[in-house]
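Task: sequence design from structure.
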């Protein structure tokens, strides 16, 4: 392992401070889930190609809810059959070793961190979670508990069967995706590009608080294209805490790491590099001889 990286990890371990991991689509790439930057993100409606930035919007959902649902159900299917990888598992080891001194902030909606064994109340899904839906008219609120099977105002995604990119949207799909309370569309519990972060659905303040208390920020597989993750990176940089970025490509977080006295850019994939990083962070101290 690079000496500078070893020094940052040793210091973080000895400090006994808390660690925040911030993950993006890159950590799930080796589980076979495409990121948004690749060409796999396109969706074809008629003869036109749409980018995720156009599909994942409230505006598109208002205009063409069935198409937006067809796209999500296809993508959710890919997530459902994917398996957690060595990168997810390494972060679970860190979670187990550090307990409350560890917080995970993820942009991924694929559920793989939780399926790998991450502790739910330390895992903050700042872009939502594909396993849940909520009323598009927001007829209930986060306090709704138990009633109609809601958990914090959200319902589990109904079983929609196996969906390919060409699976048509049927009347039965429409009724499964109707709010049991008011009959409006249910929407995916995900943050769309024309919406804002909040605490109620997306744990914005919780994520910022974790970053303002951490002594190390470990960024994995994110391109820095969204605002809250960048805010977290900039906060860590201003505070001068340890900062590691694992990514095969340069990105705004690697720039911050390179500009920081306590930062290091680990060029490589999550599966290749996270296990050794976590091992260094959780290694037992070898104590000197007792005299
Ligand atoms: P992104 O698609 O913008 O960027 C992915 C980043 O991962 C890139 O910087 C890339 O270089 C890096 N990367 C690729 N392979 C990697 C690997 N093996 N190991 C480590 N890094 C790797 O992703 P983003 O920054 O998360 O933002 C995209 C948005 O899309 C987010 O809002 C996210 O919620 C959503 N999204 C989620 C999923 C998912 O849940 N798995 C998938 C696609 C998109
Ligand atoms: Zn409703």
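Answer:
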């Amino acid at each position: 392992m690079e000496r500078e990286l070893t020094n940052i990890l040793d210091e973080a371990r000895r400090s006994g401070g808390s660690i925040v991991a911030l993950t993006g689509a890159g950590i799930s790439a080796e589980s076979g889930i495409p990121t948004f930057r690749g060409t796999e993100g396109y969706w074809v409606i008629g003869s036109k190609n749409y980018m995720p930035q156009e599909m994942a919007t409230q505006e598109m959902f208002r205009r063409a809810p069935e198409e937006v649902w067809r796209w999500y159900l296809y993508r959710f299917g890919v997530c459902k059959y994917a398996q957690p990888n060595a990168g997810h598992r390494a972060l679970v080891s860190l979670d187990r070793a550090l307990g409350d001194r560890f917080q995970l902030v993820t942009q991924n909606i694929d559920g793989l961190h939780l399926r790998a064994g991450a502790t739910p109340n330390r895992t903050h899904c700042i872009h939502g979670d594909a396993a849940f839906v909520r009323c598009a008219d927001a007829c209930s609120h986060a306090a709704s508990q138990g009633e109609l099977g809601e958990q914090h105002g959200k319902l589990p995604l109904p079983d929609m069967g196996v969906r390919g990119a060409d699976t048509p949207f049927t009347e039965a799909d429409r009724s499964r995706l109707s709010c049991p309370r008011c009959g409006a569309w249910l929407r995916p519990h995900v943050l769309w590009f024309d919406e804002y972060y909040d605490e109620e659905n997306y744990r914005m303040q919780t994520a910022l608080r974790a970053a303002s208390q951490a002594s190390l920020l470990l960024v994995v597989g994110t391109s820095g294209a969204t605002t809250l993750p960048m805010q977290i990176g900039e906060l860590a940089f201003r505070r001068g805490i340890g900062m590691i970025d694992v990514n095969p490509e340069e990105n705004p977080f690697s720039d911050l790491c390179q500009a920081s006295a306590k930062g290091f850019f680990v060029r490589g994939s999550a599966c290749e590099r996270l296990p050794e990083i976590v091992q260094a962070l959780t290694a037992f101290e070898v104590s000197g001889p007792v005299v």
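The first strand starts at residue 18 and ends at 23.
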